[in-house]
């Protein structure tokens, strides 16, 4: 059986887990192509006009996959930690897709809600596994293997790998690259995994900055314990998992890591980011007065415009440090 | 303590009575105007929704008028509105206004926090006993206002001169505003209803019935939705609003009592998505079952739950055979544009009904 996984949204957080799990159960995992203009255009056609760019792109990925798979994996991601939910668009995602894209194969849209208990991830996987196999032992083994590659994946991300590199390392195609120290400036680039690590959406901001000899750090490189510590410094936290991670990582880099500047990458029409962005902006201003830039990305973002802004921002930071 | 609060629909009548009853000096939040909105837009995040911008605008105007404390409501998502109190506070502080923000969170999430905040509102000017008495009257005022507003929506499309009904209603509102005791509120509401009954109506008319659903603030606040109920009512359409402040507060503050609406939404969206997203889907189903001619969904631009609801709406509309029009509102929305869309929608519904009756 061929299981389709769209290459966006929670893909960047969980792909190795799903992939190992389905493969251990004997299914073929089919992933949609890397985001591109055609997928975006297809998504724009299917989605309500008011949705944000990542949701539109998700619809494009689903449309690209639907004819080549037997079953599509679009779980209802409700809560990834035991406290808060995700953005309401994640909560309603299977419904949005079901009523917007025609000709869909069967969907796996089980609810994943970690607020139900510590072992919910295993229960969730077990419920999916029952669709593929009657053998409880086999499902258990698959869960165990999946857990292993998920733990490895998270460790690689913490070490500073991008998800694309981490996938290759996990497949054994590559070695962990040697740490490249640069003496220049250090920049925190904040954003959701599905905007930062999707090269089409982010117009390769991370690569562009690295080419300019900037040390780039992202929320995925912050340890869970540091995240938790930062969460306690705010009087009231946000209600969305990914947004909280962005705010906490922002605070961590701001207070503990002495970054030279912060760039927040946000998608046009992103609801939670209206709150997240202002919160980080005010914290950056009040805590340490460091430069802060917002890059808003939409389906028309041109690379040249982003290049110019990044160049100007990096020059500004260098001048401030006396490196220019 | 000079206190102000968010402006929403008619609720300011009851809230200001309540706060001044507790002995506070109340800075009346100004009626939101174009100026309020552009003031709010100037200092708000670009993609915050319309209610955020209007509220920030009214706060700024109230602060200019001398307010030093703002009392507002909180929440714990997944709708963004729960964080508005906190972010408004940060923005106002950043602008150099050292206001105090009292954000009342849902009582069951943090009973102690709720008690402390309420207590800080009550003391030192008055007592808990007095608080209960004033609260009862304020609540009664809210209920009376919801009642006469409901009546207005039923009667206005039947009136020979709809404008007269609007005037009678506004007079009724002022009676309720002036009432000071429980008995006076009852009397005022009877008076208001009697005044509205005096306007001559044509009971034989069979007006089109439209259900109004969507996000609570833009549904309840006429300055945000360009008086959509009045425009429709004076076009001779019976508007039924899904949300009234009193029933919403009762159903959502302590325990959730909206089971039947959720049940109706279940086949389409089986998940609580915050705000009124799931309600919008459920209410559309129910309006269709109750023989309404159409549904209008109102939402502020970038409202997350309503976007999810909107993308499901075509399926509900097709299944249940009820036309749905979605209007997203933002600071760029013009009144004429809304009027044109409403006229076209009403024409369509009329034609549809005529064809259904003919066949």
Give structural notes.
The complex is a heterodimer of chains A (324) and B (359). By secondary structure, chain A is of the alpha/beta class. Chain A is built from 14 helices and 10 strands. Chain A folds into 2 domains: 169 residues, Rossmann fold, CATH 3.40.50; 136 residues, Rossmann fold (3-Layer(aba) Sandwich), CATH 3.40.50.11900. Chain A has a 4-stranded parallel beta sheet, covered by helices on one side. Chain A has a 4-stranded parallel beta sheet with strand order 8-7-9-10, sandwiched between helices. In chain A, strand 1, helix 1 and strand 2 form a beta-alpha-beta unit. Chain A is globular and about 65 Å long. Chain B is an alpha/beta fold and 359 residues long. Chain B has 15 helices and 8 strands. In chain B, the strands form 2 sheets. In chain B, strands 2-1-3-4 form a 4-stranded parallel beta sheet, sandwiched between helices. A 4-stranded parallel beta sheet of chain B has the order 6-5-7-8, with helices on both faces. In chain B, helix 1 links the parallel strand 1 and strand 2. Classes of the chains: A alpha/beta (324), B alpha/beta (359). At the A-B interface, helix 4, helix 5 and helix 13 of A face helix 4 and helix 14 of B.
